[in-house]
Amino acid sequence: MKQSVNSAKVDKCAEVCYILNSPFHSVSNLKPCKQLFLLLSALMFRPKRRIPRKSKKKTAADSFLPGTPVQHSAYGAGRILAREGDRVRIRFSSGSERVFSLAAAVPNGLLSLRQESGGNAAKAD
Fold this sequence. Notes:
single chain
Protein backbone atom coordinates (compact mmCIF):
# COMPACT_ATOMS: atom_id res chain seq x y z
CA MET A 1 0.00 0.00 0.00
CA LYS A 2 1.45 3.30 -1.01
CA GLN A 3 0.77 6.50 0.73
CA SER A 4 0.79 9.67 -1.18
CA VAL A 5 2.74 12.59 0.18
CA ASN A 6 0.86 15.80 0.36
CA SER A 7 3.27 18.58 -0.64
CA ALA A 8 1.21 21.20 1.18
CA LYS A 9 1.76 19.40 4.51
CA VAL A 10 5.48 19.09 3.87
CA ASP A 11 5.73 22.81 3.08
CA LYS A 12 3.70 23.63 6.19
CA CYS A 13 5.98 21.48 8.39
CA ALA A 14 9.07 23.05 6.88
CA GLU A 15 7.68 26.50 7.55
CA VAL A 16 6.83 25.62 11.16
CA CYS A 17 10.34 24.23 11.69
CA TYR A 18 11.86 27.37 10.20
CA ILE A 19 9.74 29.56 12.50
CA LEU A 20 10.74 27.54 15.57
CA ASN A 21 14.45 27.37 14.69
CA SER A 22 14.78 31.00 13.72
CA PRO A 23 14.63 32.47 17.27
CA PHE A 24 17.11 29.90 18.56
CA HIS A 25 19.48 30.77 15.75
CA SER A 26 19.19 34.45 16.70
CA VAL A 27 19.81 33.65 20.35
CA SER A 28 22.99 31.80 19.49
CA ASN A 29 24.16 34.91 17.59
CA LEU A 30 23.57 37.04 20.71
CA LYS A 31 26.27 35.28 22.72
CA PRO A 32 29.16 37.27 21.17
CA CYS A 33 27.12 40.48 21.52
CA LYS A 34 26.45 39.70 25.14
CA GLN A 35 30.13 39.05 25.78
CA LEU A 36 31.07 42.31 24.09
CA PHE A 37 28.47 44.20 26.14
CA LEU A 38 29.73 42.67 29.39
CA LEU A 39 33.31 43.48 28.49
CA LEU A 40 32.50 47.11 27.65
CA SER A 41 30.39 47.57 30.77
CA ALA A 42 33.17 46.09 32.90
CA LEU A 43 35.65 48.55 31.42
CA MET A 44 33.35 51.54 31.79
CA PHE A 45 31.93 50.81 35.24
CA ARG A 46 34.79 49.10 37.02
CA PRO A 47 35.50 50.37 40.52
CA LYS A 48 38.36 52.80 40.79
CA ARG A 49 41.48 51.54 42.48
CA ARG A 50 42.25 53.33 45.67
CA ILE A 51 45.91 54.12 46.08
CA PRO A 52 46.82 54.36 49.74
CA ARG A 53 48.48 57.65 50.48
CA LYS A 54 51.06 58.20 53.12
CA SER A 55 49.77 60.21 56.00
CA LYS A 56 51.25 63.68 56.18
CA LYS A 57 50.14 64.14 59.77
CA LYS A 58 52.97 64.53 62.20
CA THR A 59 53.00 62.12 65.10
CA ALA A 60 54.68 62.55 68.46
CA ALA A 61 57.43 60.15 67.36
CA ASP A 62 58.35 62.47 64.46
CA SER A 63 59.79 64.95 66.97
CA PHE A 64 62.43 62.47 68.17
CA LEU A 65 65.30 63.45 65.87
CA PRO A 66 69.07 63.18 66.39
CA GLY A 67 70.31 65.92 68.72
CA THR A 68 66.96 66.29 70.50
CA PRO A 69 67.13 66.31 74.31
CA VAL A 70 64.93 63.67 75.98
CA GLN A 71 63.97 62.54 79.44
CA HIS A 72 63.64 58.84 80.34
CA SER A 73 61.72 57.80 83.44
CA ALA A 74 64.50 55.46 84.66
CA TYR A 75 67.74 56.73 83.05
CA GLY A 76 67.10 60.48 83.34
CA ALA A 77 68.23 63.17 80.89
CA GLY A 78 69.75 62.24 77.57
CA ARG A 79 70.19 63.21 73.95
CA ILE A 80 69.25 61.26 70.83
CA LEU A 81 72.33 60.19 68.89
CA ALA A 82 70.68 58.36 65.98
CA ARG A 83 67.34 57.20 64.71
CA GLU A 84 66.59 54.26 62.45
CA GLY A 85 62.89 53.90 61.75
CA ASP A 86 61.14 53.29 65.07
CA ARG A 87 64.33 52.90 67.11
CA VAL A 88 66.40 55.65 68.71
CA ARG A 89 69.87 55.46 70.27
CA ILE A 90 70.17 57.75 73.29
CA ARG A 91 73.25 58.79 75.31
CA PHE A 92 72.33 59.63 78.87
CA SER A 93 74.09 62.07 81.24
CA SER A 94 75.65 59.08 83.05
CA GLY A 95 77.51 58.26 79.81
CA SER A 96 75.57 55.08 79.01
CA GLU A 97 73.92 54.53 75.65
CA ARG A 98 70.62 52.72 75.17
CA VAL A 99 68.38 51.86 72.23
CA PHE A 100 64.60 52.25 72.57
CA SER A 101 61.57 51.59 70.43
CA LEU A 102 59.53 54.78 70.14
CA ALA A 103 56.33 52.76 69.65
CA ALA A 104 56.82 51.22 73.09
CA ALA A 105 58.54 53.98 75.07
CA VAL A 106 56.58 57.11 74.10
CA PRO A 107 52.95 55.94 74.59
CA ASN A 108 53.84 54.30 77.93
CA GLY A 109 55.39 57.53 79.24
CA LEU A 110 58.91 56.10 79.52
CA LEU A 111 60.42 58.61 77.10
CA SER A 112 59.52 62.25 76.54
CA LEU A 113 60.99 65.34 74.95
CA ARG A 114 62.89 67.61 77.29
CA GLN A 115 62.89 71.36 76.94
CA GLU A 116 66.30 72.97 77.25
CA SER A 117 66.30 76.28 79.02
CA GLY A 118 69.10 78.73 78.21
CA GLY A 119 72.31 77.76 80.10
CA ASN A 120 70.72 75.95 83.05
CA ALA A 121 70.31 72.61 81.32
CA ALA A 122 73.11 70.12 81.68
CA LYS A 123 74.18 68.60 78.41
CA ALA A 124 73.96 64.84 78.16
CA ASP A 125 76.74 64.58 75.57
